[in-house]
Amino acid sequence: MKTPQLPPLIIKKSPSAFYVYTYKNKWDPEKKRSYRASFKKVGTVTSGEKEGRIRWDDHFLAERPELRDFICERKGKDYVFTPMNEGGFTLSQAMEVKQLHAGATWALDQLVVQSPIGEALKTAFPQRRDYLKVLSIAYFIILNQDNNISKYPTFAEATRLPWGASLHPSSIGRIFRKIKKQQIEKYFSALQEGLIEQKREVGDDDKPGLTHIIFNETSLTH
What we know:
By secondary structure, this protein is an alpha+beta fold. The protein folds into two domains: about 80 residues, no CATH class; about 130 residues, no CATH class. About 40% of the residues lie in helices and about 20% in strands. It has a six-stranded antiparallel β-sheet. Helix 4 packs across helix 5 and helix 4 runs antiparallel to helix 8.
């Protein structure tokens, strides 16, 4: 996997955070030297310090979609990229996943694996692995009495989720705002077909579908 190339960047401190900016130089004919004339914010250092993981702004990711496949950290003056796997984890994070609070999500994982939920989500939300993000947000909604989405980052830091990368509350809002009616219909259609096929295979058409309990009134309707 080819490491992304970044434009010239500079870190600027605000009262509450360190932000990452691109800039353009302009030539000063009198002083006969160039200077930084314009700046554009493209990300935030999530550690609150000059060094740490970078959360790129959506407009910058739209311009450089290859950045979605990497975790980027600022170390000294360098920007270090680590490839992510399908679940949004780096290899080292995957090795450490056993340390996360995974008991409750493990149970949900088993339900997803043993049901058509995963394939139905993948059919309806294939873009940018959104199906993993939707599933992770659904886990949060199911496992928390307080569904205040601003608490998702804290929950995700201590919980093993299908999508292991960071999701900011504003990003979560955008994920749900861009869900179209056709995608929801495609999801439920694929889910229903999967359930029918699954029940046909086991010869049991009378059991209620537990998968509807999880997604009918939670993730896709919030």
